[in-house]
Amino acid sequence: MSIKAESIWAAQPSTTRGQPTPISSDPRGERIAYASNKSIFLRSIDSPALSTQYTAHTTTTTVARFSPSGYYVASGDIAGTVRVWDCTGSGTTKGEFPIISGKINDLAWDGDSQRIIAVGDGKEKFGHCITADSGNSVGTISGHTAQINCVSIRQQRPLRAATAGDDASTVFYHGVPFKFNTSLKRHQRYIYGLGFSPDGSTLVSVGADRKIFLYDGKTGEAKTEIGDGEHKGSIFGVSWSSDSKRFTTCSADQTVKIWDAEAGKAIHTWRMGSDEGVVSIPDHQVGVTWPAARSDDMIISLALSGDLNYLSPSSAKPIRVVQGHQRNTTAIIPTPSQPPTLFTGSSDGRVCAWSTDTGEATTVDGAGHTNYVSGLASDNSNSKIYSVAWDDSLRTVSHSSTDIPTFTGSHHKTDGQPRGCATCSEGIVVVTHKGITLLSPTDNSVIKTLSTSFSPVAVAAVDETIAVGSDDNTLRIYSPRGLELKHTLPAFPSSISCLSFSNPAAANSNQPYLAIGFSSGRILVFSSTNKYSSPVIERWSAHTARVTSISWDARAERAVSGGLDTDVFVWSVKKPGGRVSTHGAHKEGVGGVCWVGGDGDADGKGKEGRVISVGGDGTVKVWKVESVE
């Protein structure tokens, strides 16, 4: 009896409009590192579904950089703390160092992987130089009058470093110990990107004034300005090729460009998003890295939407776009197909479709939600997914095995804030804080609306039964025909947080079970056999905080639950005291759970299955469950 982590489908990098987002790649060109919410992710370039999550930061993370040796990562957060940790497998934290009293914007390693300079928006200072193993000071960062946005260290000796920031100054340092040498003010506005070439001969800076300046990498002497007028928006990032002859830039004009450093000309341009002249804010390019040691010359850029664009000089368009969630993932539903497609929704309104075979996500196309997705439901035809969100709307997603999932044009405006949705024999049930609405599955037209004296908080449905939990701690059972009230259960001691029916066609179940999750962390299981008069299982009570989601396996023999306590539990119906769990499954809590596979056969064999969970860290995690009896 066990539950084991199988894979992590990583969250996308966190981005902010008008600000650069650092991303970096390892020396072998195999992985990228970036910050997302309160985690750091190391993600395979060739197989994005393979990733590692570092969760030791206690506040929002901002930057992560691989050491030149490739054995360690240094990461920073908004509290001004830098952590150095092993990235070869164990994830062990080597050191935790308070740098400044504010947000870390960027950091850089020296060529020996022994020293780090971290910069940002501090109150007493804007950066500091430390040793990577002990945090001892190895210099002083000075010469700036505003926050520092970027830093780079020359990888050869004599060591040189450069910083730049909101005061439009580029400051050059000699080391070690690092100390102020000169300050150059070529830019007219904020400087967002800075980088020494791999051979140390040249330093490049880019910024909000859309200008690119080159400096001598050893002396700091200004050399030339290139590309005047090429970019039409702020330049947010720069990265060198391993041959030190070319570099790439990304910009708010939705373009990524490759530059010939010697000729001073752009030699390749990609434009993301819509046609030329049509502004697409989500396609602003806010970060870029040029992975070393790769034969394909690939560049990876980051869009404001969180999309990672894989760019090749041999193609005018991205050869691959890696998508997913940036924010708290709040809802999950698998399709009945085999293999199932997984749909997830997040607090920013994004809905994604995931291949459970490959772990790749596709953002649902079309006009979607603009706010917190509070519920997802699937119809039995396997062609539609219904979603509700706090933009007070129900929308329909059309999907098939061959086409890109797309929001259809029709949607229903709800009369209040939706708390959830479900499908039954008569159509789609949506509960809002004002009441219950039954909608037609063909055109989302209203069949019946029931205004209630209570405020519904959760809903589940199966065939001819609708269960609604309310803010008065009461569960009510309705018939889909006319929304007729059938049963009202006595009020529970704590508030209902989620509901889930088991599969009525389960081989070992004559009737569907109804699991009720509570804000206290307890779960009760009822059956229609006794008209829900008393629970048939009362021992599922291991959660220590609100239960956010419950899902049954296809045989109705096991259930999985997730809660705000960050835990995922798998429960047994045959032995209610038997359970397996994984603690700390999702940083900031579990938002949803579901079963995929593990149906078993008639003689009870083949009970292995997979549980998929989503949560506050924006990830989708796959767990292998074995022999829960």
Q: Layout of helices and strands, plus pairs?
A:
Layout: E1 2-9, E2 24-25, E3 31-36, E4 39-44, E5 51-54, E6 61-66, E7 72-77, E8 81-86, E9 93-98, E10 103-109, E11 115-121, E12 127-131, E13 137-140, E14 148-153, E15 160-165, E16 170-174, E17 179-184, E18 191-196, E19 202-207, E20 212-216, E21 222-226, E22 235-240, E23 246-251, E24 255-260, E25 265-271, E26 285-289, E27 299-303, E28 308-311, E29 320-322, E30 329-334, E31 341-346, E32 351-355, E33 361-363, E34 373-378, E35 384-389, E36 393-398, E37 406-413, E38 418-423, E39 428-432, E40 435-439, E41 446-451, E42 456-462, E43 465-470, E44 475-479, E45 484-488, E46 496-501, E47 513-518, E48 523-527, E49 537-540, E50 547-552, E51 558-563, E52 568-572, E53 579-582, E54 590-596, E55 609-615, E56 620-626
Antiparallel strand pairs: 1-56, 2-3, 3-4, 4-5, 6-7, 7-8, 8-9, 10-11, 11-12, 12-13, 14-15, 15-16, 16-17, 18-19, 19-20, 20-21, 22-23, 23-24, 24-25, 26-27, 27-28, 28-29, 30-31, 31-32, 32-33, 34-35, 35-36, 36-37, 38-39, 39-40, 40-41, 42-43, 43-44, 44-45, 46-47, 47-48, 48-49, 50-51, 51-52, 52-53, ...
Biased composition (Polar residues): 12-24
WD repeats: 54-86, 184-225, 228-269, 322-364, 540-574, 611-629
Protein name: WD40 repeat-like protein
